[in-house]
Amino acid sequence: MPLKEITLAEINPTAFIDAKVRELAETVGDGAAVNALSGGVDSNTVTMLGHRALGARLKSYFIDNGFMREGEPDRVVAFFNARGVPVEKVDAREEFFAALRGKADPEEKRQAISEAFYKRVFGRLVARSGARFLLQGTILTDVEETVAGIKRQHNILAQLGIDTQAAYGYKVLEPLVELRKPAVRAVCKALGLPREMYNRPPFPGPALAARVIGEATPERIALVRIATRIVEEELEGTDTFQCLAILHEDQVTGIRDGKREFGRQIEVRCWDSEDTVTAAPTELPFATLKRLAERITREVPGVVSVTYNIASKPPSTVEAV
Ligand code: XMP
After folding, report:
1. What is the arithmetic mean of pLDDT over 150-165?
2. Nearest protein CA to atom 12 of ligand 1, as residue
């Protein structure tokens, strides 16, 4: 049955929270649930909903897949622990890099990440904790793009015909699946989370692996991680929906210190969007673009070329992979 959207205009965040808390408590009963927290608005919202509904019967895990931004795993865990929501960090970096070894095709990479998450890492955590449910922050846009065959979002399972109970040994609960980003932000705010949490720019589940074209090796992820930090630092305070850096696979001829350098290319993308269904490039001042190029070529080893994406979605998509 197609999902019916609850729009920002329609939603009453407090009533929505009450209904979902009741529903989660009834579904999980006196059992336990495992929660997938990545630090984004959607998963932060689900974590708080689950915590209200289940208290100590909710086990929240932050999976460090090796593709996160600088310092992100510890920052997210500390934020929730400080609010009385216990979160355990799981170091699964080697497992994810092994799953991506030799894979350059975008959909193959997404499939490998999805399997590493759900079959292996969460399969183990659920079995260990005796939980029967996995709680996660899938939203309507994730479902639509995946079902339409545009891009397999890492968190789409049942909607692709995957019986998670049979395949992984647990049921998946998705309390936000009727919402898009603006309505999720309203719920997140009503749950009492601070502005920097409900206003966070989106960040994809496959994280920096979605921002490396070609194989996502630890070395290549490390390069795009530096570029990401620079882009986020330079564009902080800019009125934009989401901005990112992408490491390209093709190399180009550059020159450094008077010598030829066959170097790497970074693409910067910065989007204006309401709900990620459509997006347009932010009209950044040229001086900002030049500053980005100067810093990226100076601070990211081996980068000799920086480009800015000026196409809209569609036909572009927000991430490159
Ligand atoms: P695209 O690249 O499909 O992105 O235009 C639309 C929005 O979704 C985010 N994104 C993802 N989020 N899992 C997620 O949870 C994913 O696999 C995924 N892929 C893209 C992207 O950052 C943008 O906000």
Report:
1. 89
2. 204
What's the pLDDT tens digit per position in 256-293? 999 999 999 999 999 999 989 999 999 999 999 999 99
Atom of ligand 1 nearest to the CA of 244: 22
* Residue whose pair of structure tokens reads 């966070």 in the numeric block: 200
CB 51 within 8 A of CB 66: no
Look up residue 97 and give its two tokens. Answer: 């890099």
Whether 313 lines ligand 1, by a CB cut-off of 6 Å, is yes
Q: Could you tell me the CATH number of the domain that includes residue 221?
A: 3.30.300.10
| 86 preceded by a cis bond (ω within 30 of 0) | no
Model pTM greater than 0.90? yes
Question: Which structural domain range is residue 190 located in?
Answer: 13-198
User: Please, what is the Cα angle at 219 between 216 and 222, to 5 degrees?
Assistant: 90
* Residue 18 host element (H or E): helix 13-28
Query: Could you tell me if residue 203 is inside a domain?
Result: no
pLDDT bracket for residue 1 (50, 70, 90): low
CATH number assigned to the domain comprising residue 75:
3.40.50.620
The answer to whether residues 18 and 161 belong to one domain is yes
Q: Report yes or no: 172 and 157 within 8 Å, Cβ to Cβ.
A: yes
